[in-house]
Sequence to fold (414 residues):
Amino acid sequence: MTLNKITWGLCAPATVPSVRRTRTLQLSEIVARFHHRAVPGLGGVWFGRQLMMALQGVAIASQLGKDVSNIEAANAIEALCCWQGFRENEGKNRDRRLRGIRKIRRLEPNRLTFNAARRRAFYVTIPMRMSTIEALPALGFVHAQRNFNAFQCSQVGEQLVRLETPQMAELKKWISSPDRKPPKTINSPLISLSQDACLLIRHQLENAGNDEDSKRRRDALRWMDRLRQSPPKPLSWKDRPDEISSVHWHDLQAGAYFFKTQNTALALLDLLEYEISQRGSALSLHQKLPLAISDTAERLRLDAQAFLDLKHSDAAANQFCSECTLEPVALLHALVSRDGHILKLKGDLIEPGPAFDNGVSQSAQNPESEEQYAEEASGFWPASISWRIRNLFLLNLDLHGKLADWLKKEMNNG
Fold:
């Protein structure tokens, strides 16, 4: 997620993230399309309480009126629930469903009032609520709006939060009396949703939205059910699951090949940045390229050609991958032109841009995946498959009460 797309609220960064991490190459819309084709409307959701906590915030803010915003309520509820989870999980292995380990883990109860929790930077930079911004309207839990603060619960959303009426009552008292200490008992992110809540979320996954989107989610859930019920074996792009249509599988594979091409392109730009920092001067496109750069450029050409060979219909993706198959000078010219902020062109020279990082050599992070999923130790997925498929697998485990055991197994295997 790029810096200018962060929904600012009480979880703005305590320090501004490095702009180095926001190199998008003008590919954000393409990436978003491929993730949407993988699992429409899922956003970054990978366990049920992400939806529940965010929706509780929307419902309570609506009840209390303009003095409390959706963002304030949802972020504060999430911080409170994670704090409760840390208390219950003390001394055990760290759990990926809990956020804020540095900021809130050891807070005394008298410091966890709503007035404190609603403040900027109290909790984390990117709360789990942000992973639900697409999913809540797409799955029919809120009426669709352009931003989280404008969300209002739909009838289905009200039905879901009513399944935790006692918790809703405690949270409402805590928020409406903003200097009140937190409730003594609250469901943390580690507590499974009720069976009724799980069934309702499953129903929305299978039926919400248009026919094509709901069918893709239904098919993917059937695939996840089979993988859940039998130990997954390494999966290959050569073997399409019976549950997934050929068109859906083609989109999944094309997305994976595109993501791989994107990541190789980012790595190549990282190498260019490092090379310029080491030499202390611009890099001419007319001179012989360092071996690491030429080798990575060749790897990028092969990755891009593999995507083009799939003959996918996404014109913008085809254009980018076609640029990546050009001869090295033209390729670097095209990539740096797409960058323009960290590296820039001046004639045939590649020079530091305004966000140049002076040679910190590291792989550029894919901006679209930041905080959207938790990496897992299991490597049975086809290479580079959309993280939404992996998220759906984990969400399906959660809806069947199996997520905690899976995460514990991963922790032990990792």
Notes: The first strand starts at residue 283 and ends at 284.
